[in-house]
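Changelog excerpt

This revision adds worked examples to the README so contributors can see how folded entries look when concatenated. The first example is reproduced verbatim below.
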Amino acid sequence: MTMPGTSGTILWLTGWSMPNSVFDKLQALLPEFHHGFINYSEAGSMVEMLAITETTVREVRVSAGSDFMGLQRPLLIGGWSLGGLLALRLASKGFVDGLILLAATARFTSPKEQNDRGWPDVYVRQMIAALKKDRYAVENNFRQMLFTDAEWKSGLGEVLPPIGSWTTSSLIAGLQVLREEECLSYLPEIHCPVLLIHGAEDKICPYGAAEELLAQLPQGRLITIGECGHVPFLGREEGIAGEIRRWWYGYQD
Protein backbone atom coordinates (compact mmCIF):
# COMPACT_ATOMS: atom_id res chain seq x y z
CA MET A 1 0.00 0.00 0.00
CA THR A 2 1.48 3.33 -1.08
CA MET A 3 0.79 6.44 1.01
CA PRO A 4 1.42 9.50 -1.19
CA GLY A 5 3.03 12.56 0.34
CA THR A 6 -0.03 14.60 -0.60
CA SER A 7 -3.20 12.60 -0.11
CA GLY A 8 -5.54 15.40 -1.13
CA THR A 9 -8.56 17.04 0.47
CA ILE A 10 -11.70 15.53 1.97
CA LEU A 11 -14.66 17.89 1.93
CA TRP A 12 -17.26 16.76 4.48
CA LEU A 13 -21.05 17.13 4.14
CA THR A 14 -22.95 16.43 7.33
CA GLY A 15 -26.34 14.83 7.84
CA TRP A 16 -29.65 16.58 8.39
CA SER A 17 -29.71 18.79 11.52
CA MET A 18 -26.16 17.81 12.54
CA PRO A 19 -23.21 20.18 13.10
CA ASN A 20 -19.93 19.66 11.26
CA SER A 21 -18.21 18.83 14.56
CA VAL A 22 -19.68 15.33 14.38
CA PHE A 23 -16.73 14.51 12.08
CA ASP A 24 -14.00 15.94 14.33
CA LYS A 25 -12.62 12.67 15.63
CA LEU A 26 -12.69 10.99 12.21
CA GLN A 27 -10.80 13.92 10.71
CA ALA A 28 -8.17 13.80 13.44
CA LEU A 29 -7.50 10.15 12.59
CA LEU A 30 -6.83 11.04 8.92
CA PRO A 31 -4.09 13.69 9.33
CA GLU A 32 -2.55 13.02 5.92
CA PHE A 33 -5.57 14.68 4.28
CA HIS A 34 -6.59 18.31 4.27
CA HIS A 35 -10.15 18.63 5.60
CA GLY A 36 -12.93 21.10 4.94
CA PHE A 37 -16.71 21.43 5.20
CA ILE A 38 -19.60 22.51 3.07
CA ASN A 39 -21.66 24.45 5.59
CA TYR A 40 -25.37 24.62 4.75
CA SER A 41 -26.73 24.87 8.29
CA GLU A 42 -28.09 28.38 7.63
CA ALA A 43 -29.41 27.87 4.09
CA GLY A 44 -32.74 29.65 3.66
CA SER A 45 -34.13 27.38 0.97
CA MET A 46 -33.49 24.20 -1.00
CA VAL A 47 -32.21 26.28 -3.93
CA GLU A 48 -29.74 28.06 -1.66
CA MET A 49 -28.57 24.79 -0.11
CA LEU A 50 -27.84 23.30 -3.53
CA ALA A 51 -26.10 26.50 -4.63
CA ILE A 52 -23.90 26.55 -1.51
CA THR A 53 -22.73 22.98 -2.09
CA GLU A 54 -21.85 23.58 -5.72
CA THR A 55 -20.17 26.94 -5.16
CA THR A 56 -18.09 25.63 -2.28
CA VAL A 57 -16.84 22.57 -4.12
CA ARG A 58 -15.88 24.72 -7.12
CA GLU A 59 -13.86 26.99 -4.85
CA VAL A 60 -12.15 24.10 -3.08
CA ARG A 61 -11.36 22.44 -6.41
CA VAL A 62 -9.49 25.58 -7.49
CA SER A 63 -7.77 26.20 -4.15
CA ALA A 64 -6.60 22.57 -3.84
CA GLY A 65 -4.17 23.34 -6.65
CA SER A 66 -1.34 21.02 -7.67
CA ASP A 67 1.46 19.22 -5.87
CA PHE A 68 5.18 19.83 -6.40
CA MET A 69 5.12 17.65 -9.53
CA GLY A 70 2.34 19.70 -11.10
CA LEU A 71 -0.31 17.02 -10.58
CA GLN A 72 -3.74 18.14 -9.42
CA ARG A 73 -4.36 17.15 -5.82
CA PRO A 74 -7.32 14.79 -5.47
CA LEU A 75 -10.59 16.05 -4.00
CA LEU A 76 -12.76 13.59 -2.12
CA ILE A 77 -16.19 14.23 -0.65
CA GLY A 78 -17.34 12.51 2.52
CA GLY A 79 -21.11 12.67 2.81
CA TRP A 80 -23.33 11.35 5.59
CA SER A 81 -27.06 10.79 4.92
CA LEU A 82 -28.35 14.09 3.42
CA GLY A 83 -24.70 14.93 2.77
CA GLY A 84 -24.31 11.69 0.85
CA LEU A 85 -27.19 12.57 -1.45
CA LEU A 86 -25.65 15.99 -2.08
CA ALA A 87 -22.26 14.35 -2.66
CA LEU A 88 -23.70 12.10 -5.36
CA ARG A 89 -25.19 15.15 -7.05
CA LEU A 90 -21.77 16.84 -7.07
CA ALA A 91 -20.05 13.70 -8.36
CA SER A 92 -22.50 13.50 -11.25
CA LYS A 93 -21.23 16.95 -12.33
CA GLY A 94 -17.63 15.73 -12.37
CA PHE A 95 -16.36 17.80 -9.44
CA VAL A 96 -14.72 15.04 -7.37
CA ASP A 97 -12.12 12.27 -7.56
CA GLY A 98 -13.66 9.99 -4.97
CA LEU A 99 -16.67 9.62 -2.65
CA ILE A 100 -16.98 8.37 0.91
CA LEU A 101 -20.69 7.77 1.52
CA LEU A 102 -21.79 7.14 5.09
CA ALA A 103 -25.35 5.80 5.49
CA ALA A 104 -26.26 7.35 2.15
CA THR A 105 -28.97 6.89 -0.43
CA ALA A 106 -29.61 7.86 -4.04
CA ARG A 107 -33.24 8.69 -3.20
CA PHE A 108 -34.53 9.25 0.30
CA THR A 109 -38.23 8.80 -0.42
CA SER A 110 -39.56 5.63 -2.03
CA PRO A 111 -42.95 4.08 -2.87
CA LYS A 112 -44.59 2.08 -0.09
CA GLU A 113 -43.70 -1.22 -1.78
CA GLN A 114 -40.00 -0.25 -1.58
CA ASN A 115 -39.83 0.61 2.10
CA ASP A 116 -36.60 -1.38 2.31
CA ARG A 117 -34.93 1.49 0.41
CA GLY A 118 -36.46 4.69 1.78
CA TRP A 119 -39.23 6.53 3.60
CA PRO A 120 -42.72 7.34 2.27
CA ASP A 121 -42.88 10.97 1.16
CA VAL A 122 -45.76 11.67 3.55
CA TYR A 123 -43.44 11.16 6.55
CA VAL A 124 -41.09 13.88 5.33
CA ARG A 125 -43.99 16.26 4.64
CA GLN A 126 -45.25 15.67 8.17
CA MET A 127 -41.80 16.54 9.55
CA ILE A 128 -41.77 19.81 7.59
CA ALA A 129 -45.19 20.78 8.95
CA ALA A 130 -44.21 19.84 12.51
CA LEU A 131 -40.98 21.86 12.36
CA LYS A 132 -43.00 25.05 12.14
CA LYS A 133 -44.69 24.20 15.45
CA ASP A 134 -42.00 22.53 17.57
CA ARG A 135 -38.63 22.09 15.92
CA TYR A 136 -37.01 20.67 19.08
CA ALA A 137 -39.53 17.82 19.21
CA VAL A 138 -38.93 16.99 15.53
CA GLU A 139 -35.14 16.93 15.93
CA ASN A 140 -35.39 14.91 19.14
CA ASN A 141 -37.71 12.34 17.57
CA PHE A 142 -35.37 12.05 14.60
CA ARG A 143 -32.43 11.38 16.90
CA GLN A 144 -34.29 8.56 18.60
CA MET A 145 -34.16 6.65 15.30
CA LEU A 146 -30.44 7.08 14.71
CA PHE A 147 -29.22 4.17 16.82
CA THR A 148 -30.09 0.56 17.54
CA ASP A 149 -31.23 -0.38 21.06
CA ALA A 150 -27.77 -1.82 21.75
CA GLU A 151 -26.11 1.40 20.61
CA TRP A 152 -28.35 3.46 22.89
CA LYS A 153 -27.51 1.19 25.83
CA SER A 154 -23.81 1.59 25.10
CA GLY A 155 -24.14 5.36 25.53
CA LEU A 156 -23.47 6.20 21.89
CA GLY A 157 -26.32 8.72 21.84
CA GLU A 158 -24.50 10.80 24.44
CA VAL A 159 -21.64 11.38 21.99
CA LEU A 160 -23.85 13.34 19.57
CA PRO A 161 -23.47 17.14 19.57
CA PRO A 162 -26.37 19.10 21.11
CA ILE A 163 -29.58 19.84 19.19
CA GLY A 164 -30.06 23.29 17.70
CA SER A 165 -27.15 24.04 15.36
CA TRP A 166 -29.33 24.55 12.24
CA THR A 167 -31.85 27.29 11.56
CA THR A 168 -35.48 26.26 11.07
CA SER A 169 -35.26 27.38 7.44
CA SER A 170 -32.25 25.15 6.82
CA LEU A 171 -33.97 22.18 8.45
CA ILE A 172 -36.91 22.64 6.08
CA ALA A 173 -34.56 23.13 3.12
CA GLY A 174 -32.74 19.90 3.96
CA LEU A 175 -35.99 17.97 4.10
CA GLN A 176 -37.03 19.43 0.77
CA VAL A 177 -33.75 18.17 -0.73
CA LEU A 178 -34.50 14.73 0.68
CA ARG A 179 -37.97 14.85 -0.87
CA GLU A 180 -36.99 16.08 -4.31
CA GLU A 181 -33.43 15.02 -5.14
CA GLU A 182 -33.11 11.70 -6.96
CA CYS A 183 -29.70 10.49 -8.13
CA LEU A 184 -30.55 6.99 -9.35
CA SER A 185 -30.73 7.96 -13.00
CA TYR A 186 -27.10 9.04 -13.20
CA LEU A 187 -25.36 6.57 -10.86
CA PRO A 188 -23.91 4.52 -13.77
CA GLU A 189 -22.15 7.67 -15.00
CA ILE A 190 -20.30 8.32 -11.71
CA HIS A 191 -16.97 6.69 -12.53
CA CYS A 192 -14.88 7.83 -9.57
CA PRO A 193 -14.13 5.36 -6.74
CA VAL A 194 -16.94 5.24 -4.16
CA LEU A 195 -16.67 3.78 -0.65
CA LEU A 196 -20.06 2.96 0.88
CA ILE A 197 -20.22 2.46 4.66
CA HIS A 198 -23.65 1.46 5.94
CA GLY A 199 -25.19 0.09 9.11
CA ALA A 200 -27.10 -3.17 8.69
CA GLU A 201 -29.91 -1.91 10.98
CA ASP A 202 -30.25 1.64 9.66
CA LYS A 203 -33.81 2.96 10.16
CA ILE A 204 -33.26 6.28 8.37
CA CYS A 205 -31.62 5.14 5.13
CA PRO A 206 -32.42 1.40 5.08
CA TYR A 207 -29.72 -1.06 4.10
CA GLY A 208 -31.49 -1.68 0.80
CA ALA A 209 -30.48 1.85 -0.21
CA ALA A 210 -26.81 0.86 0.08
CA GLU A 211 -27.39 -2.26 -2.00
CA GLU A 212 -29.13 -0.12 -4.62
CA LEU A 213 -26.11 2.19 -4.77
CA LEU A 214 -23.65 -0.69 -4.97
CA ALA A 215 -25.55 -2.31 -7.85
CA GLN A 216 -25.33 0.79 -10.04
CA LEU A 217 -22.07 2.55 -9.17
CA PRO A 218 -19.30 1.31 -11.52
CA GLN A 219 -16.58 1.64 -8.86
CA GLY A 220 -18.59 1.17 -5.68
CA ARG A 221 -17.37 -0.84 -2.69
CA LEU A 222 -19.65 -1.57 0.28
CA ILE A 223 -18.58 -2.07 3.88
CA THR A 224 -21.43 -3.29 6.09
CA ILE A 225 -21.35 -2.53 9.82
CA GLY A 226 -23.33 -5.14 11.73
CA GLU A 227 -25.65 -4.23 14.63
CA CYS A 228 -25.36 -0.59 13.57
CA GLY A 229 -27.90 2.13 12.87
CA HIS A 230 -27.68 5.39 10.93
CA VAL A 231 -24.36 6.72 12.28
CA PRO A 232 -21.83 4.06 11.22
CA PHE A 233 -18.76 6.18 12.01
CA LEU A 234 -19.63 7.42 15.50
CA GLY A 235 -17.75 5.46 18.15
CA ARG A 236 -16.05 3.50 15.38
CA GLU A 237 -13.82 6.27 14.02
CA GLU A 238 -10.55 4.38 14.31
CA GLY A 239 -11.80 1.42 12.27
CA ILE A 240 -13.56 3.66 9.72
CA ALA A 241 -10.44 5.79 9.24
CA GLY A 242 -8.48 2.62 8.56
CA GLU A 243 -11.04 1.48 5.98
CA ILE A 244 -10.95 4.87 4.23
CA ARG A 245 -7.15 4.79 4.16
CA ARG A 246 -6.96 1.25 2.75
CA TRP A 247 -9.62 1.97 0.14
CA TRP A 248 -8.16 5.25 -1.12
CA TYR A 249 -4.50 4.23 -1.14
CA GLY A 250 -5.48 0.99 -2.81
CA TYR A 251 -6.57 3.06 -5.79
CA GLN A 252 -3.26 4.92 -5.83
CA ASP A 253 -1.06 1.82 -6.18
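The second example, added in the same revision:
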Amino acid sequence: MATLVVEDLQTHFFTKKGVVKSVDGVSFTVDKGEILGLVGESGSGKSITGFSILGLLDDPGRVVGGRILFQGQDLAKLPEKDMRAYRGKRIAMIFQDPMMTLNPVLSIETQMVETLQAHENISRKDAKARARDTLGMVGIPSPDERLASYPHQFSGGMRQRVAIAIALLHRPELIIADEPTTALDVTIQSQILYEMQRLTKEFGMALIWISHDLGVVAGLADKVAVMYAGSIVESGTVDEVLDRPVHPYTIGLMGAIPANLPRGSLLRPIPGMAPPPLMRPSGCSFRERCPAATEVCASPLTTDALGTHTWRCFHPQNAHPDNGRAA
Protein backbone atom coordinates (compact mmCIF):
# COMPACT_ATOMS: atom_id res chain seq x y z
CA MET A 1 0.00 0.00 0.00
CA ALA A 2 1.29 3.43 -0.95
CA THR A 3 1.95 5.82 1.92
CA LEU A 4 -0.07 8.58 0.24
CA VAL A 5 -2.55 8.51 -2.64
CA VAL A 6 -4.06 11.81 -3.76
CA GLU A 7 -6.99 11.39 -6.14
CA ASP A 8 -8.59 14.28 -8.05
CA LEU A 9 -7.87 16.77 -5.26
CA GLN A 10 -9.78 20.04 -5.62
CA THR A 11 -9.09 22.97 -3.31
CA HIS A 12 -11.05 26.17 -3.91
CA PHE A 13 -10.99 29.63 -2.35
CA PHE A 14 -14.38 31.31 -2.22
CA THR A 15 -13.68 35.03 -2.60
CA LYS A 16 -15.98 38.01 -3.18
CA LYS A 17 -14.80 38.17 -6.79
CA GLY A 18 -15.41 34.50 -7.49
CA VAL A 19 -14.15 30.97 -6.89
CA VAL A 20 -10.38 30.49 -7.21
CA LYS A 21 -9.55 26.90 -8.15
CA SER A 22 -6.08 26.78 -6.63
CA VAL A 23 -5.86 23.00 -6.91
CA ASP A 24 -7.95 21.57 -9.72
CA GLY A 25 -7.99 17.80 -10.05
CA VAL A 26 -4.52 16.86 -8.79
CA SER A 27 -3.60 13.16 -8.47
CA PHE A 28 -0.36 11.44 -7.46
CA THR A 29 1.04 8.70 -5.22
CA VAL A 30 4.08 8.54 -2.93
CA ASP A 31 5.41 5.21 -1.67
CA LYS A 32 7.42 4.37 1.41
CA GLY A 33 11.01 5.60 1.06
CA GLU A 34 10.15 7.54 -2.11
CA ILE A 35 10.72 11.22 -2.88
CA LEU A 36 8.26 13.10 -5.11
CA GLY A 37 9.31 16.47 -6.50
CA LEU A 38 6.34 18.80 -6.98
CA VAL A 39 7.54 21.61 -9.25
CA GLY A 40 6.17 24.65 -11.08
CA GLU A 41 6.06 28.44 -11.12
CA SER A 42 4.90 30.50 -8.15
CA GLY A 43 1.12 30.39 -7.94
CA SER A 44 0.81 26.99 -9.60
CA GLY A 45 -0.80 25.43 -6.51
CA LYS A 46 2.16 23.47 -5.11
CA SER A 47 2.06 24.82 -1.56
CA ILE A 48 -1.75 24.74 -1.41
CA THR A 49 -1.57 21.05 -2.33
CA GLY A 50 0.70 20.48 0.68
CA PHE A 51 -1.50 22.53 3.00
CA SER A 52 -4.57 20.62 1.78
CA ILE A 53 -3.00 17.28 2.68
CA LEU A 54 -2.29 18.47 6.23
CA GLY A 55 -5.59 20.31 6.67
CA LEU A 56 -3.86 23.67 7.14
CA LEU A 57 -6.14 25.74 4.93
CA ASP A 58 -7.53 29.02 6.24
CA ASP A 59 -10.88 30.49 5.24
CA PRO A 60 -12.05 31.06 2.58
CA GLY A 61 -10.17 28.02 1.27
CA ARG A 62 -11.36 24.45 1.59
CA VAL A 63 -11.08 21.03 -0.04
CA VAL A 64 -14.22 20.56 -2.13
CA GLY A 65 -13.48 17.30 -3.90
CA GLY A 66 -11.21 14.31 -4.26
CA ARG A 67 -9.56 11.99 -1.76
CA ILE A 68 -6.36 12.20 0.30
CA LEU A 69 -5.62 8.61 1.28
CA PHE A 70 -2.91 8.31 3.90
CA GLN A 71 -2.30 4.58 4.39
CA GLY A 72 -5.92 4.03 3.38
CA GLN A 73 -7.47 6.72 5.62
CA ASP A 74 -9.14 9.59 3.76
CA LEU A 75 -7.77 12.69 5.48
CA ALA A 76 -10.16 14.94 3.56
CA LYS A 77 -13.05 13.52 5.61
CA LEU A 78 -11.43 13.69 9.04
CA PRO A 79 -12.69 16.26 11.56
CA GLU A 80 -10.07 18.66 12.94
CA LYS A 81 -9.81 16.90 16.32
CA ASP A 82 -8.91 13.61 14.60
CA MET A 83 -6.54 15.31 12.17
CA ARG A 84 -4.39 16.48 15.08
CA ALA A 85 -3.38 12.89 15.75
CA TYR A 86 -1.80 12.76 12.28
CA ARG A 87 -0.40 16.28 11.98
CA GLY A 88 3.11 16.53 13.41
CA LYS A 89 3.28 12.90 14.54
CA ARG A 90 2.62 10.81 11.41
CA ILE A 91 2.74 13.61 8.82
CA ALA A 92 5.17 16.50 9.27
CA MET A 93 5.79 19.67 7.31
CA ILE A 94 8.97 21.68 6.81
CA PHE A 95 8.29 25.29 5.83
CA GLN A 96 10.37 27.56 3.61
CA ASP A 97 10.99 29.95 6.50
CA PRO A 98 12.14 28.07 9.63
CA MET A 99 10.85 30.94 11.78
CA MET A 100 7.34 29.76 10.85
CA THR A 101 8.22 26.61 12.83
CA LEU A 102 10.39 28.03 15.61
CA ASN A 103 9.18 30.22 18.47
CA PRO A 104 11.74 33.04 18.93
CA VAL A 105 11.22 33.29 22.71
CA LEU A 106 11.59 29.59 23.58
CA SER A 107 14.79 27.57 23.69
CA ILE A 108 15.28 24.78 21.17
CA GLU A 109 15.07 22.25 24.01
CA THR A 110 11.70 23.54 25.17
CA GLN A 111 10.26 23.50 21.65
CA MET A 112 11.48 19.99 20.86
CA VAL A 113 10.51 18.49 24.22
CA GLU A 114 7.02 20.01 24.06
CA THR A 115 6.60 18.71 20.52
CA LEU A 116 7.39 15.18 21.70
CA GLN A 117 5.19 15.37 24.81
CA ALA A 118 2.25 16.69 22.78
CA HIS A 119 1.96 13.32 21.00
CA GLU A 120 3.70 10.80 23.23
CA ASN A 121 3.69 9.79 26.89
CA ILE A 122 7.40 10.42 27.40
CA SER A 123 9.42 11.81 30.30
CA ARG A 124 11.24 15.11 29.91
CA LYS A 125 14.58 13.32 30.35
CA ASP A 126 13.87 10.86 27.54
CA ALA A 127 12.41 13.62 25.36
CA LYS A 128 15.54 15.71 25.82
CA ALA A 129 17.74 12.75 24.91
CA ARG A 130 15.77 12.12 21.71
CA ALA A 131 15.86 15.82 20.84
CA ARG A 132 19.65 15.85 21.31
CA ASP A 133 20.09 12.73 19.16
CA THR A 134 17.88 14.16 16.40
CA LEU A 135 19.82 17.42 16.31
CA GLY A 136 22.99 15.41 15.87
CA MET A 137 21.35 13.36 13.16
CA VAL A 138 20.74 16.45 11.00
CA GLY A 139 24.32 17.63 11.39
CA ILE A 140 24.16 20.20 14.20
CA PRO A 141 27.47 20.16 16.12
CA SER A 142 27.52 19.99 19.94
CA PRO A 143 23.79 19.17 20.14
CA ASP A 144 23.81 19.08 23.97
CA GLU A 145 24.92 22.70 24.08
CA ARG A 146 22.71 23.87 21.22
CA LEU A 147 19.58 22.60 22.94
CA ALA A 148 19.89 25.54 25.34
CA SER A 149 20.17 28.03 22.46
CA TYR A 150 17.40 30.21 21.02
CA PRO A 151 16.53 30.48 17.30
CA HIS A 152 18.24 33.87 16.86
CA GLN A 153 21.53 32.28 17.93
CA PHE A 154 21.56 30.02 14.87
CA SER A 155 22.42 30.86 11.26
CA GLY A 156 19.70 30.48 8.62
CA GLY A 157 21.02 27.08 7.57
CA MET A 158 21.21 25.85 11.16
CA ARG A 159 17.68 27.09 11.89
CA GLN A 160 16.45 25.08 8.92
CA ARG A 161 18.26 22.02 10.26
CA VAL A 162 16.48 22.51 13.59
CA ALA A 163 13.14 22.72 11.75
CA ILE A 164 13.97 19.48 9.95
CA ALA A 165 14.94 17.87 13.27
CA ILE A 166 11.57 18.83 14.76
CA ALA A 167 9.83 17.28 11.75
CA LEU A 168 11.81 14.07 12.29
CA LEU A 169 11.20 13.76 16.05
CA HIS A 170 8.31 11.32 15.73
CA ARG A 171 9.78 9.45 12.74
CA PRO A 172 6.75 10.37 10.60
CA GLU A 173 5.68 8.22 7.67
CA LEU A 174 5.31 11.31 5.44
CA ILE A 175 7.12 14.65 5.30
CA ILE A 176 6.01 17.58 3.16
CA ALA A 177 8.87 20.02 2.53
CA ASP A 178 7.76 23.39 1.13
CA GLU A 179 10.84 24.89 -0.57
CA PRO A 180 12.92 24.58 2.63
CA THR A 181 16.27 25.42 1.00
CA THR A 182 15.26 28.36 -1.22
CA ALA A 183 16.74 31.06 1.03
CA LEU A 184 19.98 29.19 1.75
CA ASP A 185 23.32 29.43 0.00
CA VAL A 186 24.22 26.62 -2.38
CA THR A 187 26.69 24.89 -0.02
CA ILE A 188 24.21 24.67 2.88
CA GLN A 189 21.47 23.71 0.41
CA SER A 190 23.55 20.80 -0.85
CA GLN A 191 24.21 19.57 2.68
CA ILE A 192 20.53 19.64 3.64
CA LEU A 193 19.49 17.88 0.41
CA TYR A 194 22.00 15.13 1.15
CA GLU A 195 20.71 14.75 4.72
CA MET A 196 17.07 14.61 3.60
CA GLN A 197 17.83 11.99 0.96
CA ARG A 198 19.76 9.90 3.48
CA LEU A 199 17.14 10.17 6.23
CA THR A 200 14.29 9.35 3.87
CA LYS A 201 15.95 6.12 2.82
CA GLU A 202 17.15 5.28 6.34
CA PHE A 203 13.73 5.59 7.98
CA GLY A 204 11.61 4.58 4.98
CA MET A 205 9.68 7.85 5.00
CA ALA A 206 7.78 9.23 2.03
CA LEU A 207 8.80 12.78 1.11
CA ILE A 208 7.07 15.43 -1.01
CA TRP A 209 9.60 18.10 -1.98
CA ILE A 210 7.88 21.26 -3.21
CA SER A 211 10.15 23.45 -5.31
CA HIS A 212 10.47 25.71 -8.33
CA ASP A 213 14.09 24.59 -8.83
CA LEU A 214 14.31 21.73 -11.32
CA GLY A 215 18.03 21.36 -10.63
CA VAL A 216 17.39 20.57 -6.97
CA VAL A 217 14.61 18.13 -7.81
CA ALA A 218 16.74 16.36 -10.45
CA GLY A 219 19.35 15.45 -7.84
CA LEU A 220 16.93 14.60 -5.04
CA ALA A 221 13.67 13.07 -6.21
CA ASP A 222 12.63 9.69 -7.57
CA LYS A 223 9.51 11.03 -9.29
CA VAL A 224 8.47 14.45 -10.58
CA ALA A 225 5.05 16.07 -10.98
CA VAL A 226 4.98 19.37 -12.89
CA MET A 227 2.15 21.73 -11.88
CA TYR A 228 0.69 24.61 -13.85
CA ALA A 229 -2.38 26.69 -12.96
CA GLY A 230 -3.61 24.24 -10.33
CA SER A 231 -3.15 21.03 -12.33
CA ILE A 232 -0.42 18.47 -12.92
CA VAL A 233 0.51 18.71 -16.60
CA GLU A 234 3.26 16.07 -16.67
CA SER A 235 4.53 13.42 -14.27
CA GLY A 236 6.77 10.39 -14.16
CA THR A 237 10.21 9.34 -13.02
CA VAL A 238 12.96 11.96 -12.89
CA ASP A 239 14.56 10.49 -16.04
CA GLU A 240 11.27 10.44 -17.95
CA VAL A 241 10.19 13.99 -17.15
CA LEU A 242 13.50 15.85 -17.05
CA ASP A 243 15.44 13.93 -19.71
CA ARG A 244 12.53 13.36 -22.11
CA PRO A 245 9.90 16.05 -21.42
CA VAL A 246 6.89 16.05 -23.74
CA HIS A 247 4.67 18.83 -22.40
CA PRO A 248 5.50 22.27 -23.85
CA TYR A 249 5.45 23.79 -20.36
CA THR A 250 7.99 21.31 -19.00
CA ILE A 251 10.13 21.82 -22.10
CA GLY A 252 9.90 25.57 -21.53
CA LEU A 253 11.03 25.21 -17.92
CA MET A 254 13.99 23.09 -19.00
CA GLY A 255 14.91 25.62 -21.70
CA ALA A 256 15.08 28.42 -19.13
CA ILE A 257 17.82 26.69 -17.09
CA PRO A 258 21.26 28.15 -17.93
CA ALA A 259 23.07 24.87 -17.21
CA ASN A 260 21.12 23.12 -19.99
CA LEU A 261 22.45 25.42 -22.73
CA PRO A 262 25.87 25.85 -24.36
CA ARG A 263 28.01 28.68 -22.99
CA GLY A 264 27.00 32.00 -24.55
CA SER A 265 23.54 30.81 -25.63
CA LEU A 266 20.51 32.93 -24.90
CA LEU A 267 17.92 31.58 -22.49
CA ARG A 268 14.56 30.62 -23.96
CA PRO A 269 12.04 32.13 -21.52
CA ILE A 270 8.41 31.06 -21.62
CA PRO A 271 6.49 34.00 -23.12
CA GLY A 272 3.79 35.78 -21.15
CA MET A 273 2.60 35.00 -17.65
CA ALA A 274 0.40 32.41 -16.00
CA PRO A 275 -3.29 33.40 -16.28
CA PRO A 276 -4.90 35.05 -13.23
CA PRO A 277 -6.74 32.44 -11.13
CA LEU A 278 -10.15 33.94 -11.95
CA MET A 279 -9.41 34.25 -15.69
CA ARG A 280 -8.08 30.86 -16.69
CA PRO A 281 -8.96 29.92 -20.27
CA SER A 282 -11.05 26.88 -21.13
CA GLY A 283 -9.27 23.65 -21.93
CA CYS A 284 -5.50 23.83 -21.48
CA SER A 285 -4.53 26.71 -19.18
CA PHE A 286 -1.12 26.92 -20.88
CA ARG A 287 -2.46 27.39 -24.41
CA GLU A 288 -2.19 31.20 -24.44
CA ARG A 289 1.58 30.91 -23.84
CA CYS A 290 2.21 27.77 -25.89
CA PRO A 291 3.84 28.00 -29.36
CA ALA A 292 2.21 24.71 -30.34
CA ALA A 293 -1.37 25.67 -29.39
CA THR A 294 -4.25 25.24 -31.84
CA GLU A 295 -8.03 25.56 -31.61
CA VAL A 296 -8.36 22.05 -30.19
CA CYS A 297 -6.48 23.17 -27.06
CA ALA A 298 -9.66 24.94 -25.88
CA SER A 299 -11.33 21.53 -25.54
CA PRO A 300 -11.39 19.56 -22.27
CA LEU A 301 -8.06 17.84 -21.63
CA THR A 302 -7.44 14.14 -21.16
CA THR A 303 -4.40 12.37 -19.71
CA ASP A 304 -2.10 10.36 -21.99
CA ALA A 305 0.50 7.93 -20.74
CA LEU A 306 3.41 5.78 -21.76
CA GLY A 307 4.20 3.50 -18.85
CA THR A 308 4.61 5.66 -15.74
CA HIS A 309 5.10 8.83 -17.82
CA THR A 310 1.86 10.86 -18.07
CA TRP A 311 0.97 14.23 -19.60
CA ARG A 312 -2.04 16.40 -20.37
CA CYS A 313 -1.49 17.96 -23.78
CA PHE A 314 -3.01 17.80 -27.28
CA HIS A 315 0.35 18.49 -28.90
CA PRO A 316 3.00 16.79 -26.75
CA GLN A 317 6.51 17.93 -27.59
CA ASN A 318 5.47 19.96 -30.65
CA ALA A 319 7.00 23.09 -29.18
CA HIS A 320 10.51 21.58 -29.47
CA PRO A 321 10.37 18.26 -31.31
CA ASP A 322 14.04 17.50 -30.59
CA ASN A 323 13.41 17.35 -26.85
CA GLY A 324 12.06 13.82 -26.57
CA ARG A 325 10.25 11.03 -28.30
CA ALA A 326 7.89 11.73 -31.18
CA ALA A 327 4.30 12.60 -30.41
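Reviewer comment on example two: Residues 104-169 form one domain. The CA atoms of residues 150 and 207 lie 28 Å apart.
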